[in-house]
Amino acid sequence: MPHDGHDHSSLEGPPDGWKHTGVRVIPGDRLDENTAQTPGMHRAAAINLARVGAQKIWAGTVHIHANAKTGAHHHGPLESVIYVVKGRARMRWGEKLEYVAEAGPGDFIYVPPYVPHQEINASTDETLECVLVRSDNEAVVVNLDIEPAEKPEDVAWIDPIHKA
User: I want to staple 40 with a disulfide (CB 3.0 to 4.6 A). Which of 75, 112, 146, 155 is the partner?
Assistant: First the structure.
């Protein structure tokens, strides 16, 4: 047994020796599209409780049409990481959404718990493609009575946590 101060006795594993309950590869063309879809947007789950038994994380893709914007909200105790694959994401945050930053392909965006924010597709003609990871499967969204820095218009940014 390793002498690193940790109890490794629980690492004996399940009866299948981790064959079907261990590492899983989710091919990009086999994401779960069996979720409510919205015109102008495409959502798909890769990692969640239903697909792989994930207990503490959710991951998937979100494709958002040009000019899509959310209203002001936060996600309670959840942490979020957004990785921009294609397009231009604009984030506004703060008590009055007074701060702004943009991210492009290859950039990561971190949204801490309880931070009031607004997500915006900064492009008027290009779809924003992102990978989204959340710190829990629980869908938490708290809409805030803050005048959005940029008025929501067209299609709202909707994924499993930003409901219609």
Answer: 155
